[in-house]
Amino acid sequence: MSLIRRLRRKLFPPGQAIEGYENEELVDTIFRKTVAYDPKGDWALVSDIKTVLDFGGGAGLHYKLARLQNPDIRWAVVETQAMVRRASELATDRLKFFSDIGPAADWLDDVDLMHSNGAIQYVPNPIEVVRSLCAVRPAAIVWRRVPTNDGEAEVREMQTSFLSDNGPGSLPSASDKVVRYERHRIPAQPFLSAHEGYRMTERSSDPLERRTEQFRFVRTG
Hints:
Layout: H1 3-11, E1 17-19, H2 24-36, E2 51-55, H3 61-69, E3 74-78, H4 81-87, E4 95-98, H5 101-108, E5 113-117, H6 126-135, E6 140-146, E7 148-149, E8 155-162, E9 178-187, H7 188-193, E10 198-205, E11 213-219
Parallel strand pairs: 1-9, 2-3, 2-5, 3-4, 5-6, 7-9
Antiparallel strand pairs: 6-11, 8-9, 10-11
Helix pairs in contact: 2-4
């Protein structure tokens, strides 16, 4: 985005606002940007992986990158019901969309990797969702862009973004809107403890987003 456009948007923000990730206009924007998305590069994480459960994977943007170096990978996206309805037309025999964790894991059968990038903080009960994901026993778990706190309780925040900034890449648009949604700053120790049966092999600041962390866990049994 150009400096002039950034300044104009800061000085004269859009007057219209939409609420939450189930909003149809937001879902459609992410869908259309994903369809137009043309990723480049390598992703070593998935090079030898057969099955991935992608929690909060939108309309399949991570799959588009993964299949470049691993065309046979099978990918199950778990998303909101609104996103699943919109993205299902992109489904193939190797990419499916689900609104619940259980059916996604059943379709994959054995889950080699649970991957989630910037999503767990937007569910109503993040710790319970972490436990549910661990319960399907993926061989490895990778979290990206997790906002944490040092306390014992979740800290709720109201986050805003511009509609045009959601989803990969960009689309020409005559107008923009503000998107508002609640997110949780997740307590680090309860988050780690929820990974029962797993050993943490990586924890560090995530370079993709300020004040977030990235984690990697491997199954112990």
